[in-house]
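Methods — Computational structure assignment.
A single polypeptide chain was analysed. Its primary sequence is given first, followed by the predicted tertiary structure written as structure tokens.
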Amino acid sequence: MTKGTQSFGKRQTKTHTLCRRCGRVTFHKQNKVCGSCGYPAARLRRYDGWGRKTARRRGQGTGRMSYLKNVPRRAKNGFRTGVTPRPKVRKTITK
């Protein structure tokens, strides 16, 4: 058996398929584990030493942040709730 052209002709099967969680083609069919996000593990796959760019791409602040983006403003006002603002007094213009 040679290690060149003939061997490459037998590479027809796909090892990875779409991952349900991250949507990338990194879910290993035999091992049943995603190489990108670590699915089916409960926590996302993430390592500190390498893959810093990946951590930046999917870290906090990359999505909508529908809750967190309002927290600084609410903290400034002491997290008050159920308070109606005072009515604005308009100045009348005399001619």
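Note: The domain at 13-47 is CATH 2.20.25.30 (N-terminal domain of TfIIb).
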